[in-house]
Design a protein that fits this description.
- The protein is an alpha/beta fold.
- The protein has one domain (4-165): 3-Layer(aba) Sandwich (Rossmann fold), CATH 3.40.50.
- 55% of the residues lie in helices and 13% in strands.
- The chain contains 8 helices and 5 strands.
- It has helices at residues 15-26, 33-41, 45-51, 53-67, 85-92, 104-110, 123-140, 151-168; strands at residues 4-8, 30-32, 74-76, 95-101, 143-146.
- It has a 5-stranded parallel sheet with strand order 2-3-1-4-5, with helices on both faces.
- Helix 1 (15-26) packs across helix 8, helix 3 packs across helix 4 (53-67) and helix 4 (53-67) packs parallel to helix 5 (85-92).
- The longest helix is centred in the C-terminal third of the chain and has 18 residues, at 123-140.
- The radius of gyration is 15 Å and the shape is globular.
- The model has no long low-confidence stretch (mean pLDDT 94).
- Shikimate-3-phosphate (S3P) binds next to helix 1.
- Catalyzes the specific phosphorylation of the 3-hydroxyl group of shikimic acid using ATP as a cosubstrate.
- This is Shikimate kinase.
- It comes from Alkalibaculum bacchi.
- Substrate binds at residues 34, 57, 79, 133.
- Mg(2+) binds at residue 16.
Length: 171
């Protein structure tokens, strides 16, 4: 069985972008959980958050069960996937989990906080979210990658580290 590669990390750390680059390099299918949820639920993430964050989190958990059954996919999660341990348990069955650790200052410089519901309170919200979640990302990942420098090179590094991890763990 060929495991999925699941990317976790802060909103704006590069999960969606890196997953697409990696899928091309490895010639594997890619799923961006946020896009997948939006198209299958026929609601935007914002519309789901407007109902309530709990509503979105329940939907997100439902899809972590479904996507946990796949193999050989590259999967970009939403930054809050780590808020429920069960999500990681579901995904981990068939996946290598990679934490994309990007300096918060780079995230803040890059993303439009107005378009991300949890970051709509501004830059300070990004720092407090990082402090809240960093132990979860570090605790749940199999591999941690620093996203600094050229993004294509970061994608290559992830592929290299995942291959090494699989060899070392007989997967
Ligand atoms: N190493 C990098 N160099 C330049 N831009 C980057 C890098 N990593 C991420 N980005 C940019 O940051 C933004 C947010 O990335 P995205 O893939 O949407 O993050 P996520 O899915 O984790 O929220 C995108 O514009 C992306 O191109
Ligand atoms: O961090 C979070 O709680 C969220 C991150 C978003 O995805 P990205 O990490 O791709 O921005 C999206 O799932 C939703 O807005 C909630
Ligand atoms: Mg994304």
């Amino acid at each position: 069985m060929n495991k999925n590669i699941v990317l976790i990390g802060m909103p704006g750390c590069g999960k969606s972008t890196l997953s697409k680059i990696m899928a091309k390099r490895l010639n594997k299918p890619v799923i961006d959980m946020d896009d997948y949820i939006e198209s299958h639920e026929e609601k935007t993430i914002k519309e789901m958050f407007d109902i309530s964050e709990a509503f979105f989190r329940d939907v997100e958990s439902k899809y972590s069960i479904l996507l946990g059954e796949l193999n050989s996919h590259i999967i970009a999660t939403g930054g809050g996937i780590v808020k429920r341990k069960e999500n990681i348990t579901n995904l981990k069955k068939n996946s290598v989990i990679v934490f994309i650790n990007r300096p918060v200052d780079d995230i803040v410089g890059d993303i439009d906080v107005r378009t991300r519901p949890l970051l709509s309170k501004g830059v300070e919200a990004v720092y407090s979210l990082y402090n809240e979640r960093i132990h979860l990302y570090k605790g749940y990942c199999d591999i941690e990658i620093n996203n600094v420098g050229e993004i294509q090179k970061v994608a290559d590094l992830i592929i290299e580290k995942v291959q090494l991890y699989k060899v070392e763990n007989n997967q």
